[in-house]
Amino acid sequence: MVDLHCHLLPGIDDGAGCWEESIALAKEAASLGISTVVVTPHAAYAGRRNHPQSVMDLTAQLRQRLQQENIPLQVREGMEIPSHEWSPGCANQRHLCLAGSQYVCLEPPPGHQPLFLRGIIFESAVLGYRPLLVHPERCEWVQRRPEILGELVASGAQLMVNAGSLVGLFGEKVRHAALELVRRGLCFAVCSDAHSRTRSFAPFKQAYCLVERQFGPAVATRLFRDNPGLVTGAGT
Amino acid sequence: MKAPRNAECDEKLIHQLHPRSPVVESFRILRANLRFVSVDQPLRTLLVTSALPMEGKSLVAANLAIAVAQSGDPVVLVDGDLRRPILHSMFGLPQNPGLTTLVVRGNQGPSLEAALGRPLPRLAVLPAGPVPPNPTELLASRSMAEVLRRLTQEGNLVIIDSPPVLSLADAAVIAAQCDGTVLVVQAHQTPYPAVQKAKEVLSTARARILGVVLDRVRMGRRDYYYYYYYHRKPAPKT
User: Is residue B110, in this structure, part of any structural domain at all?
Assistant: First the structure.
């Protein structure tokens, strides 16, 4: 399995707090059958921006540590970018795409559907980027009207659902919206969004089993391995 | 089990039918008629539209394009429906890059060749591209006119599919840039006032209405040759 979205890098956002936690999480990921993760720290956290170079450096350090500890987990670099911060014109100076690909991980705002969102997605798609909207199922405006996402997909977005949402970690409304997206075939990939020991990779595996049971093994393979593999494979 | 919408559309594309089937024949007749409706002005760009949604525009546009390609002329089929594009899924092509990509990026973006799909010999299909938030403005832009001009160099005829005429300005905006427009009308279905209103809107936009394609005609055994009528209307007064 391939996970496109987790906060595994230590000390730069609300994810892993220290190296020990990072290593423990990585160990868990590998033991669950995850072969590759893309680390996606918040582009900005607590008023501090994470520079692409510092994320690359930290990713390289993590890779080295995993090698030392003999943990069989590939780590690629990425970022979770608030959708209002993303500007396709100055992508490289400020932000990182996922694993050197054209896919960008964008976080939609939770409360209301912003007017700019469709424009930003269209602009990115036309410029050759592939905007991946993360956990839209957690947004209130999506729960109210999931069909809005069809429009965003037509404009070039691809949707990534949180494993935790599917297994009910964020409540019934979110779980319902997440399942609906998978059912409608709007979901491109499922991601772990793992942060810490308490929000770990475990739901990723649980969600895999759930999708396999409810939608069949072909869908599970597509959402947990093939589609995310397209992203990490595209950069190599 | 009910087939998904795309598969249904697929089956109705005429290159997959028997060459002597009446449906295929009717598209050859339509093709031949179009060759003669436009004597003074060569027909290089043709808009296919309808008054209302779901009247079969895209299918008529696609099948007409196939019929033209099969007759030996290179043809370009363009998805100008930037609201609900469907041609890419009819031909199993990626939606992006496409028309909007070319219009927004001009010479900076992917080449025309990279955006065109070629599902059959002599048939090039330009998908819609990502759906923009402002379709009408894109279609009315100078860059759109430039893309159209470049497309006419790719084929003898450029056929453009569009949203319905009523309730949206898109079709009228494209019609104004085309040499001719045909209106798809559903037999026994489209209300007469809707067709009349659509004709008015198109005429106001200075579209040249070549005629009407009557779609979904109920056919008896004996008159299968007239499955699709092509009926020429008097030329619009200018």
Answer: yes
Q: What is the CATH number of the domain that holds B184?
A: 3.40.50.300
B127 interfacial to chain A (CB closer than 8 Å): no
Full residue range of the structural domain in which residue A34 is found: 2-234
Domain total in chain A = 1
Q: Which residues of B touch A127 (CB under 8 A)?
A: 105, 109
Q: Which of B131, B137, B138 to mutate to test the interface with A (most CBs of A within 10 A)?
A: B131
Cα A45 to chain centroid, rounded: 17
B145, with CB counted inside 10 A (0-12, 13-18, 19+), is middle
Interface contact A156, partner B, CB < 8 A:
yes
Query: Whole domain around residue B193: which residue ranges?
Result: 5-232
Which residues, 6 or more positions from A122, have their beta carbon under 8 angstroms from its beta carbon? A155, A156, B100, B130, B131, B132, B133
Q: Residue A112: which CATH number?
A: 3.20.20.140
ipTM over 0.85: no
B112 touches A at CB < 8 Å: no
| Nearest CA among B140, B147, B182 for reference residue B165 | B182
Residue B238 resides in a domain: no
pLDDT in tens, A84-125: 888 887 767 789 999 999 999 999 988 888 888 999 999 999
Instruction: Extract the tokens encoding A129.
Output: 């980027």
The pTM assigned to this predicted structure is 0.83
Angstrom distance (rounded) from CA B75 to CA B14: 15
Residue B97 within any structural domain of the chain:
yes
Say how far apart CA A22 and CA B130 lie, in whole Å.
38
Number of domains into which chain B is organized: 1
- Could you report the per-residue pLDDT of A206-234, keeping only the tens digit for each? 999 999 999 999 999 999 999 999 999 84
